[in-house]
Structures are given as structure tokens and as C-alpha cells.
């Protein structure tokens, strides 16, 4: 059973909390500490960014994080080592990589290397379902699960492809635009319903999760979890209380009806 | 998508999922418009009565060899860019969009987009690297005079590629009422195909004009390549003429052996940037490299995917011309022919002069993609006031 499946089983009726960390931001050591911090504070799964110089799907916060990592001289090798280091310490926590197509194609065997480092899934932000199959084939062979994005405006045929190709979970985007905290998502019940009908992997909402109430709204819309990115990066960068923040999001994932 | 958007192994549509419906809508609108007489006649009317087509084909009187210039410098707006912004502007109208966004490097495409925004009544926003905004104040003012808003992009290296990133980000949130008027034959499908079709008129006219003036096809067709729109527009109608050599000229900047150039096809490797699989200047991890050229229009780390295919298949050849060689051709054309061309176009002229030296009897068709007014101040700095 994959780490994602085990996690969803373990959580039962609770939602999964994913925390995003840009690898190498602001340097290798501090991002290793942040990874441990967010898990110790309650994150159920980790999303790690491998920095790319031209991240068109990202808002200013994640862009700046990638830029800091690259300025610090962080290489893809360093990122894979960070994942391996995390994996050695946290055996059960699923790790998903988020990066861009050029990083993947520049390194023959990227999927295999990522799997060997201990990553469980790979999402390539600028590879839509239209172009996905050659990538997902490599991933499946290498033993790393593909994650694809479903958006509220994704037409039915593409949504069917997402359902077929996306394995670990389905990354749901319910508003247009880029990553960031400027606007909270409206968490689209209809999208979740369509994915369920299509037999898609468990839906998880990303983009615009920055408060416990967003977590509750997303879960109420039927999601199995949420991923919080820019808000965590922002706090880590400004020296805020990341642990307390992650704890507050985690508390919001508890199944309300079960608690009563 | 109805078309596969591939040129051999290059091209494709590498964008966030959320943008795919916008590109599908654009492809449908483009294909429908191609078969719609009213669209085609409105576009040709604008090209003729507003933009000034056909542009002349000028045989150089005094430069050595047998060089013919296709005079896109004489088009309204001062460069070939106007051909395709009119096409995309009409498409945007057809799709019911209210707003245009565009990226620009030195400002030529921004000015062209501002022109079509004013003419066809769009709210127009131009993304321009903060570095370029500082260097190209006059073009910024031109855009503003025509009602466009110019946004200085502070991210990354603050130049053209960062402006494209920012325009794509805007479009991810705004595509419902906004058309992204991409400036070159690069980017995700359908842009490379669509921009080629709107620029094809350059080569189509030149081919007919050459047959009329010279009685035959040229031996070589030479054009500068940044993103590659003027080159693909000039090449397109010659691709099936196997005897006609096609030569794209890239910016060799301060030399191809160093790192300060924009010679993507000569020095790049296959990769994926701004929506297309193509040649890219990058490091071994896939991080995009900084580029350099004296001409901002050639200062770009990727290239249109059809050029990648033309290189791969051997149909076209790509060469480099340095800043110094381009500047010297810029001066030669001014002194001998009385034509001030854009620094970009001067790269093509420089290579044509090399070819003319090797084969003085060959007829060489050169894409003179733009006029040099925008570069005069920089030329003065580089050459010195007493030249």
C-alpha cells in the first residue's frame, strides 16, 4: 500500500493536512529544519518544491522562495538529498514533489532518482493532461505516483484523463490564477462531485489556504485534505510562528461530527 | 485541441491545466477565422489601408553583392510586429475579450499591442521588465500615449522572460475577459502556428516581388531570430523550395564562446520554457540562463519551436552574429543605402554581407524586420557622437 493510501486510512474521517516547503529556501540546512518542524507540528503530508528559475504558476511568495534557493546555489542534487534525509527520519509521511517540466526533462531518470530519494508523488505544474502521458509513463515505471491538477474550468474530457492518470491524490484548484494568499479559494463542491463520479484519486485543495476556516470550508466541500503553501513560506521567511500556525490548521482538519 | 501543435519533436502546450481551456478557445477562434471570408477581408483591409501593406522590396544599390531587403521597417509601427497584432486583435474581438495583455522586451511589441488596443478599443496592459522600462523610456511613453498601461516587472532578471512569466500569471486569472497577445512565434500551441500564419504575408509578398523584379527565386533567405516571428514569416512560403537556403541569424552577443549571447539554437539544448518544447539556454539542472544581446529583440533564452524543428531537420541553418558585427552592418546600411535599420535586423544584414562576399552573384533576400529609430540613442553611445 502506498504511503498516501496508508495516510488516508489512518486519518479516517479527518482531513489530510499537506504543508509545502521550497527545498533549499533560504538554504539547505534551514529548509531541512522547516520540513521537520511542519511534520512535528502536525502536517500529515509534505509537498516539496524543487526550485525553477521561471515558475509561471506561482505567485510572488513562492517565486521569491525559489529565487532565494537558487541564489543560495541549491541544485537538484541537493533537493534530492534533502528528501532522502527527511525520508530516513520520517518513514510514513508521504512526500510529493512539485516542480516544472524543464527541471524534469533536463535530468534523464528524474522520476527514478526522485523515487529512490523517497518521494511518493510528482506534480509538474506546467504539464497539463494534454501533455502528461509521456511523463506519467516514466513515473509509473519508476515507482512514483503522478499527481495532476483538476480545476473548476477543466472540461469533462480532460477531467476524465485526470481521473485516469492522477494516482496519489487529485490536486484541486477551485479558483483561477496562481499560488498565493491574496484571495481565498471558493471550494467548489461541484468539482469534487465531478471527480468522484469520474473515479478520481482523493481530492485535495491547494491555492489560497491560509486560515483554519479555509481548511474547514475545503473539507466541508468534500475534499480529503488541503495543501498550504504560500502562508507557511511567508511565515518561515518572516520568522513567524510556523509550528503554531500548522497546529491551528491541523486542528481544523478534525472531523467535527466525530468530535461531538 | 484540434491540431497537435507539434513541429517534429518540438512545440506542444506546456502550461498549467487552468490555461488549457483558454488556449483551446483561441485555437478554435483562430481556425474558424481562417475559413471566414469576413475575418480575412477585414484583416487584409487593415493591413493595406492602416498598416501600409504591401511593403516594398528594395534592391541594395551600393552594398556589395545582390541583396534584396524586405522592408518591414516601413510598416506602420516600424516593425513586422504590426502584421500579427492586427490578426490577434481581431481574433480577440471575435472571442468577445475586453482586455489585451502583452509582454515586451525593448518595447516594439508593446507599442504594436498599444496600437491595436487603441485602434480596436481594448483596455491594454503591457508587462515589461523593470530593467527594460529604465532603458526604454521613450517606448514606454509611446505606449502610454496610445492609452496602454505599462507594468514594470520586478521579478527574476527584470527583462523579457520575466515579463512573459508575469503576463502568463495575469492570464491564468484573467482569461475569461482577457486575450494574451503573445508577441512572437513561440510559446504554447496555438501561438507558434497562429503567429506564423499572421506573419506569412512577409514571405508571400517577397516571393512574388522577387519573381517580378528578378524573374526567379532567391538563392538564400536571411532573417534574424529572437523568438523567431519575422524569420518564420519570411521563411514560411519558401520552405517547400528546396533550392532556397534558409538562414536564421541569432545574437552572438559578445561571442558564442562565452555566456553573453542569445544564440539559443547554436548554443542551447532541448528543454521546455514558456509553454513549448524547444531549444533553451539553460544550465545542467534546467535553470534558465541569462542572455545578452545589444538588441533587446534577440535577447531571449528560448526560440519558436518551428525553428527548433527546421534546425533539427536541416531545412534551415542558424548562425550567430556578434554585437560588433551587427553594429558595423547597421552603419554600412545607413552609409550605403540611407536606411537606418533596427539592431535586430542589422544581424541579418551582417550575415547577408558575409554571404555576398562568398557568392557575389547569389540573390539574397533579407528580412529588414524593423526600423532603427528606437536604437539611434544607443548607437550614438556605442559609436560616439563624432562618428
Question: How does this structure look, described?
Answer:
The complex is a heterodimer of chains A (260) and B (387). Chain A has 260 residues and is of the alpha/beta class. Chain A is built from 13 helices and nine strands. Chain A has one domain: TIM Barrel, CATH 3.20.20. Chain A has a nine-stranded parallel β-sheet. Chain A starts with a helix and ends with a helix. The mean pLDDT of chain A is 94. Chain B is α/β, with parallel strands linked by helices and 387 residues long. In chain B, strand 11 and strand 12 form a beta hairpin. Chains A and B meet through helix 3, helix 5, helix 7 and strand 6 of A and helix 1, helix 7 and strand 11 of B.
Summarize the structure.
The complex is a heterodimer of chains A (260) and B (387). With 260 residues, chain A is of the alpha/beta class.
Looking across the biggest beta sheet of chain A, what order are the strands in?
Answer: 5-4-3-2-1-9-8-7-6
The end-to-end span of chain A amounts to 31 Å
Largest sheet of chain B: 6 strands, mixed
Q: The CATH topology of chain A is what?
A: TIM Barrel
Structural domains of chain A: how many: 1
**Secondary structure: helix percent of chain A:** 40-55%
Largest sheet of chain A: 9 strands, parallel
Q: For this structure, what is the CATH homologous superfamily of chain A?
A: Aldolase class I
> Which series of helices and strands of chain B comes N to C?
EEHHEEHEHEHHEHEHHEHEHEEHEHHEH
Oligomer: heterodimer
Give the number of DSSP strands of chain B: 14
Q: What ranges of chain B have pLDDT less than 50 throughout 5 or more consecutive residues?
A: none
Order of helices and strands of chain A: HEHEHHEHHEHEEHEHEHEHHH
Radius of gyration of chain A: 17 Å
Rounded average pLDDT of chain B: 96
- Shape of chain B, please? globular
Structural class of chain A: alpha/beta
Amino acid at each position: 500500500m502506498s504511503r498516501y493510501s496508508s495516510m488516508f486510512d489512518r486519518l479516517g474521517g479527518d482531513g489530510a493536512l499537506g504543508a509545502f516547503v521550497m527545498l533549499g529556501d533560504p538554504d539547505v540546512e534551514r529548509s531541512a529544519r522547516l520540513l521537520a518542524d511542519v511534520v512535528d507540528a502536525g502536517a500529515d503530508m509534505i509537498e516539496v518544491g524543487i526550485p525553477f528559475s521561471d515558475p509561471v504558476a506561482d505567485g510572488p511568495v513562492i517565486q521569491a522562495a525559489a529565487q532565494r534557493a537558487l541564489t543560495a546555489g541549491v541544485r537538484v542534487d541537493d533537493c534530492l538529498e534533502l528528501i532522502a534525509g527527511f525520508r530516513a527520519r520520517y518513514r510514513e509521511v508521504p512526500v510529493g514533489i512539485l516542480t516544472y517540466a524543464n527541471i524534469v526533462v533536463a535530468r534523464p531518470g528524474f522520476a527514478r532518482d526522485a523515487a529512490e530519494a523517497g518521494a511518493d508523488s510528482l506534480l509538474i505544474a506546467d504539464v497539463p493532461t494534454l501533455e502528461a502521458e509521456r511523463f506519467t509513463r516514466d513515473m509509473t515505471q519508476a515507482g512514483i505516483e503522478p499527481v495532476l491538477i483538476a480545476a473548476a474550468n477543466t472540461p469533462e474530457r480532460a477531467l476524465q484523463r485526470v481521473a485516469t492518470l492522477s494516482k496519489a491524490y487529485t490536486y484541486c484548484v477551485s479558483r483561477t490564477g496562481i499560488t498565493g494568499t491574496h484571495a481565498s479559494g471558493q471550494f467548489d463542491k461541484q468539482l469534487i462531485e465531478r471527480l468522484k463520479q469520474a473515479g478520481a484519486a482523493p481530492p485535495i485543495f491547494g491555492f489560497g489556504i491560509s486560515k483554519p476556516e479555509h481548511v474547514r470550508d475545503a473539507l466541508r466541500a468534500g475534499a480529503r485534505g488541503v495543501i498550504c503553501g504560500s502562508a507557511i513560506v511567508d511565515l518561515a521567511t518572516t520568522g513567524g510562528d510556523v509550528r503554531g500556525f500548522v497546529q491551528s490548521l491541523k486542528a481544523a482538519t478534525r472531523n467535527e461530527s466525530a468530535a461531538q | 485541441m484540434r491540431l497537435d501543435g507539434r513541429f517534429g519533436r518540438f512545440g506542444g502546450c506546456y502550461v498549467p491545466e487552468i490555461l488549457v481551456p483558454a488556449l483551446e478557445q483561441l485555437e478554435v477562434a483562430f481556425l474558424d477565422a481562417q475559413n471566414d471570408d469576413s475575418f480575412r477581408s477585414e484583416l487584409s483591409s487593415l493591413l493595406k489601408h492602416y498598416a501600409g501593406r504591401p511593403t516594398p522590396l528594395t534592391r541594395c544599390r551600393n552594398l556589395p553583392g545582390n541583396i534584396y531587403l524586405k522592408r518591414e521597417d516601413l510598416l506602420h509601427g516600424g516593425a513586422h510586429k504590426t502584421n500579427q497584432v492586427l490578426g490577434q486583435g481581431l481574433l480577440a474581438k471575435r472571442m468577445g475579450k475586453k482586455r489585451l495583455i502583452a509582454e515586451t522586451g525593448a518595447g516594439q511589441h508593446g507599442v504594436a499591442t498599444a496600437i491595436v488596443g487603441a485602434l480596436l478599443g481594448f483596455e491594454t496592459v503591457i508587462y515589461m521588465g523593470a530593467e527594460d522600462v529604465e532603458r526604454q523610456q521613450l517606448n514606454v511613453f509611446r505606449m502610454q500615449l496610445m492609452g496602454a498601461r505599462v507594468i514594470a516587472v520586478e521579478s527574476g532578471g527584470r527583462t523579457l522572460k520575466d515579463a512573459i512569466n508575469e503576463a502568463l500569471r495575469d492570464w491564468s486569472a484573467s482569461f475569461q475577459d482577457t486575450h494574451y497577445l503573445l508577441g512572437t512565434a513561440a510559446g504554447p500551441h496555438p501561438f507558434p502556428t497562429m503567429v506564423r500564419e499572421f506573419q506569412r504575408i512577409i514571405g508571400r509578398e517577397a516571393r512574388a516581388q522577387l519573381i517580378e523584379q528578378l524573374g526567379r527565386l532567391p538563392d538564400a533567405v536571411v532573417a534574424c531570430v529572437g523568438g523567431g516571428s519575422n524569420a518564420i514569416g519570411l521563411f514560411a512560403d519558401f520552405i517547400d523550395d528546396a533550392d532556397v537556403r534558409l538562414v536564421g541569424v541569432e545574437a552572438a552577443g559578445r561571442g558564442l564562446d562565452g555566456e553573453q549571447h542569445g544564440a539559443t539554437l547554436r548554443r542551447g539544448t532541448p528543454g521546455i520554457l514558456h509553454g513549448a518544447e524547444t531549444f533553451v539556454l539553460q544550465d545542467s539542472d534546467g535553470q534558465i540562463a541569462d542572455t545578452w544581446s545589444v538588441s533587446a529583440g534577440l535577447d531571449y533564452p528560448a526560440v519558436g519551436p518551428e525553428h527548433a524543428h527546421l534546425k533539427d531537420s536541416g531545412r534551415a541553418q542558424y548562425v550567430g552574429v556578434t554585437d560588433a558585427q551587427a553594429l558595423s552592418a547597421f552603419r554600412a546600411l545607413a552609409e550605403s543605402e540611407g536606411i537606418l535599420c533596427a539592431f535586430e535586423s542589422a544581424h541579418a544584414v551582417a550575415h547577408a554581407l558575409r554571404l555576398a562576399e562568398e557568392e557575389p552573384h547569389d540573390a539574397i533576400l533579407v528580412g529588414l524586420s524593423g526600423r532603427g529609430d528606437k536604437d539611434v540613442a544607443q548607437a550614438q553611445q556605442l559609436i560616439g557622437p563624432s562618428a
